[in-house]
Design a protein that fits this description.
By secondary structure, the chain is α+β, with helices and mostly antiparallel strands. Among the domains are: 64-74 and 452-561, Orthogonal Bundle (Neutral Protease, domain 2), CATH 1.10.390; 75-203 and 226-237, no CATH class. The protein contains 13 helices and 34 strands. Strands 7-6-10-4-3-17-21-19 form an eight-stranded mixed sheet. A six-stranded mixed sheet has the order 20-23-24-25-27-26, with helices on both faces. The chain has a five-stranded mixed sheet with strand order 1-31-30-33-34, with no helix packed on it. The longest helix is centred in the last third of the chain and has 21 residues, at 494-514. Mean pLDDT is 89; it is low at 4-58.
């Protein structure tokens, strides 16, 4: 999802690039110091200075979902030998009525119970009920806000609700629906078929995740969907309130969209009936694009004109191994396509509403799919589609919605396309619970966006802007722990808490704690382990620790479960002894509860510099320590953090004497 914060609009998505640890020069040797002496003193600063969030039952410190190691989830962060998850396969048929602005259709769900439990009822998500008068979400978010209902009175109308052909009475609670089963569904692979007819009025502004604009329709959350039943919480019944996103089961989805005959439909999955809906020339161009590394116009500029056409057409799609599908339709789409490695990369846009940058939309899509496949994990689907419309930015399997790009800036359009398609990895591939943990979705994606932007625009960098935005939100009293559910984060802080702050934490862990190679190996392993599965935060934390071989509890505690900020102070520096016995004694104080391995750059009287790094264990018994290490001469100045990208909250206490310069913010190191 695109956030309105400048981060995603342009700065972080189109240029959030964390700098790499700058290569050591001849005058700046790096030494990992084993401190000769550690002198402990009583802390002079209280924990109140840590900026810990006030007590609030919704905040992340209260939500520690680390399931104990068991047969389902191992202590190493891997799925256990008995790991299971449910499966939901859908067959959908829907009609778009542009006169009534309504979707009506039928859904048949083949639900497989792979759990060890017998199920006497099931839960489904009815997300369109957010737009009913008096919904829970309408009470939480103002009607004129981005996620607000905006006075629209919609919601699902359901009929013929059946389980295995037997009529059942749905029990609807806002955006959730319980169906009591006629007979208990046995464990270990038993199946049940759920079917119903449904309809809903299409909201103009569907919480910036779907909606309509004139003749253009962008359709998501458009059918009742199974809630997740997992080994951690059982049924996940958190309602859809607007700001939190989704948690869904995987399966195959066949769907048919009947629309006015003049409409072109773009959707998740692969078009199954091109002979019925495309001209011979368009089919030939589509075949050409499927094997072309350059863009091919499937619907040309001259053809992209709305023309009165009687009747309807039905477009059929199939999407395999997905958690959802979405689609869009308009009578005047231009359609450009290209390919990479067998993946068809497409862009649909109305040329009268978009600027020239969208002419490059298919190439931007291709570039993004190729880049994330190279860096993290191969793209698992046969196509990727970008659609221009009123939605600021939203993602679904193989399909993203991107704002028109009214200013025509290629960097802005690319930044949003790149961000939204980054979500194909998190959470479409790695299926975390977005409704509870935005950082496993938006934070991971913002993190990988940094490398994509560095590859496309070398030297771009917004590492420091992330820290500045975090400070701004903190000063406003809106900061919350990363573990806070997205709907409990103030909307003004969502772009920081869900996007920038977790990305900054991951970049810090990579570049200043584990090192790029170690982090990248662990992060790729997490992606591989949990592809098409449902990881918890604990699965991520444990994977990173076990693959890296490092105990990172101190890091998770500070960054994920509190709002404390890093602030180390270089209190004093003293050179002792002479010759080979010369040492430097560094007085370092920890002003908050946040632990971090100190790194110091020394400046000697001959002008040379040397970097010394200590382990985080120096803080084992106190908040103020004396660190002793060999010195090559008399020290005349020093500074904490030779690399200025360490997010120390207060730089004013980081230097002593004639302090040497920190490295300038540089580009990120692209994963190998």
């Amino acid at each position: 999802m695109k956030t309105s914060i400048r981060l995603i609009a342009l700065a972080l998505v189109a240029g959030c690039v964390p700098p790499a640890t700058t290569a050591t020069t001849a005058t700046t040797p790096v030494r990992i110091a084993e401190p000769v002496t550690i002198t402990l003193r009583v802390p002079s600063d209280s924990a109140a200075a840590a900026g810990v969030a006030p007590e609030n039952p919704f905040l992340g410190a209260k939500r520690i979902d680390w399931p104990g190691p068991n047969a389902y989830r191992s202590a190493s962060g891997e799925p256990g030998p008995s790991y299971w998850q449910q499966r939901a396969d859908y067959t959908l048929a829907a009609t778009l009525d542009t006169a009534a602005k309504r979707v009506s259709g039928t859904v048949r769900i083949r639900y497989t119970n792979n759990s060890p439990d017998s199920l006497r009822f099931v839960w489904l998500q009815l997300d369109q009920n957010l737009y009913r008068a008096g919904s829970k979400g309408s009470a939480l978010f103002p009607s004129d806000s981005r996620w607000g209902v905006r006075g629209f009175n919609g919601g699902y109308a359901l009929t013929q609700v059946m389980v295995d052909g037997v009529a059942v009475q749905p029990r609807v609670d806002d955006t959730m629906m319980r169906l009591d089963l006629p007979a208990a569904l046995p464990p270990h692979g038993a199946q049940v078929t759920i079917s119903m007819s449904y309809s809903f009025l299409i909201p103009e502004h569907g919480s910036d995740r779907m909606g309509r604009d004139g003749t253009l329709y962008e359709m998501a959350q458009w059918y009742p969907r199974m809630a997740v039943y997992d080994d951690v919480r059982g049924w996940n019944t958190d309602p859809y309130l607007g700001q939190g996103e989704f948690y869904l089961e995987y399966g195959d989805i066949d769907y048919a969209i009947t629309a006015p005959a003049g409409y072109t439909i773009a959707g998740s999955g692969v078009l199954q009936n091109p002979d019925d809906v495309l001209t011979p020339a368009q089919r030939a161009r589509l075949s050409e694009a499927a094997a072309s590394a350059v863009q091919v116009a499937i619907i040309t500029r001259g053809e992209a004109r709305a023309r009165p056409t009687p009747g309807t057409k039905t477009w059929r799609f199939r999407a395999e191994h997905v958690r959802d599908v979405a689609w869009a339709g308009a009578p005047d789409f231009r359609w450009e396509a290209t390919s990479w490695n067998g993946v068809l990369c497409q862009a649909y846009f109305q040329q009268d509403r978009t600027k020239g940058a969208w002419d490059q939309g298919a190439e931007m899509t291709q570039w993004t799919i190729r880049t994330y496949s190279d860096l993290w994990y191969p793209y698992p689907y046969p196509q990727a589609t970008s659609v221009a419309g009123p939605i600021a930015g939203m993602e679904y399997p193989m399909f993203v919605m991107v704002e028109y790009g009214s200013n025509g800036d290629p960097n802005s359009v690319f930044g949003t396309i790149d961000h939204e398609h980054g979500h194909e990895w998190f959470p479409m591939l790695v299926g975390s619970n977005e409704r509870r943990y935005a950082w496993q979705d938006e934070g991971f994606n913002t993190f990988i966006n940094a490398f994509s932007n560095e590859r496309r625009y070398p030297g771009t960098n917004a590492y420091d802007s992330g820290l500045a935005a975090w400070k701004h939100v903190s000063a406003a009293g809106l900061d919350t722990p990363l573990m806070t559910a997205p709907d409990q984060i103030d909307p003004a802080a969502l772009g920081v808490v869900a996007y920038e702050k977790p990305a900054l934490a991951l970049l810090t862990l990579r570049n200043h704690v584990l090192g790029a190679d170690t982090f990248d190996r662990a992060f790729r392993e997490y992606t591989r382990r949990w592809a098409f599965k449902h990881p918890t935060p604990g699965d991520f934390f444990r994977t990173m620790e076990n693959v890296s071989g490092r105990d990172l509890g101190w890091f998770w505690r500070s960054w994920w479960y509190t709002t404390a900020k890093l602030d180390l102070a270089l209190v004093n520096v003293e050179t002792r002894g002479s010759g080979a016995d010369r040492t430097v004694v560094l007085e370092v104080a920890r002003r908050t509860d946040v632990l971090f391995p100190p790194a110091v750059r020394l400046k000697y009287e001959d002008g040379s510099t040397e970097d010394i790094r200590f382990g985080v264990d120096v803080w084992a018994r106190g908040a103020s320590v004396s660190l002793t290490a060999p010195a090559k001469g008399r020290v005349v100045g020093a500074r904490l953090w030779p690399d200025a990208t360490v997010p120390d909250w207060n730089s004013a206490n980081d230097t002593w004497g004639d302090a040497p310069r920190a490295d300038k913010l540089g580009p990120v190191t692209i994963p190998k």
